[in-house]
Amino acid sequence: MPEGDTVWQAARRLHEALAGEVLIRSDFRVPKYATVDLTGRRVLSTVPRGKHLLTRFEGGLTLHTHLRMEGAWKVYGEGERWRGGPGHQIRVILGTEHRTAVGYRLQVLELLRTTEEERVVGHLGPDLLGPDWDPERALANLRTDPARPLGEALLDQRNLAGIGNIYKSELCFLLGATPWLPVGALPADRAEKLPGLAHRLLEANRDRPVRQTTGLRHQDLFVYGRAPRPCLRCRTSVRVADQGDGSQERPTYWCPTCQTGPAPAPDAPQRWRERHRRTPG
């Protein structure tokens, strides 16, 4: 799933391609908006809010999209071949004289009045890459449920907006705590560092084509995606298991030596690997 930094990059691409331009093509390929035509309207801006994208048009309209697991916005120049996927995966096309933005596999696509944007993003906590970023409020939000596992609390966009599964695993590693450690059990000094650390990681990566958390050449991430390879710090095998209520697969990576706190049942990582081994692709 795209995280706050990749959504920020998508918003920048859309803004640079469309903002200030008048639409000459508008094609919504979802039943609810099949008759909507935005041609003739000027695009005002595209802004990110956590993992959400808000594209605003003159006349007080906003297109709200969310990439979820597989969605993507692609921008193409005149005559450029579209390469984002087969045509049946296209959900919306917005074209100006020189650029065309194509939304593929968008699971959330909603047209609303700009004055109603809070209805779709008002529940979010402070945005790690937004002008509303507030580390004290983010920490207070995380602490409202001290018994909740740290990894789950970090993924809850109501606490702070922009963290996904990759940053969850990397942050827990950098804090020296397993993702199953209750938020209230995280030592106070580390808890106070958490919001600033999360902010620095996303800020450092918002302009990078490849996400990097380690500062090491040829080793981009500390634990995410590394199981069962050795930990970059202690050489213990990195482990992986699902975390969450089972409604979504959340492969979670950690080092059992560098990170202290509870861990899932010993067979949980094997269950995760077996399930994915049976699933094509």
TrEMBL record:
Q: Short name of one Pfam family for this protein?
A: Fapy_DNA_glyco
**InterPro entries reported in the protein's UniProt record:** FPG_cat, FPG_N, H2TH_FPG, Nei2_N, Ribosomal_uS13-like_H2TH, Znf_DNA_glyclase/AP_lyase
Q: Which superkingdom, per the lineage?
A: Bacteria
Positions of the FPG-type domain: 222-260
Q: Where does the Formamidopyrimidine-DNA glycosylase catalytic domain start and stop, copy by copy?
A: 2-130
Q: Quick one: where's region Disordered?
A: 255-281
> Under which name does UniProt file this protein?
DNA-(apurinic or apyrimidinic site) lyase
Species per Swiss-Prot/TrEMBL record: Streptomyces griseofuscus
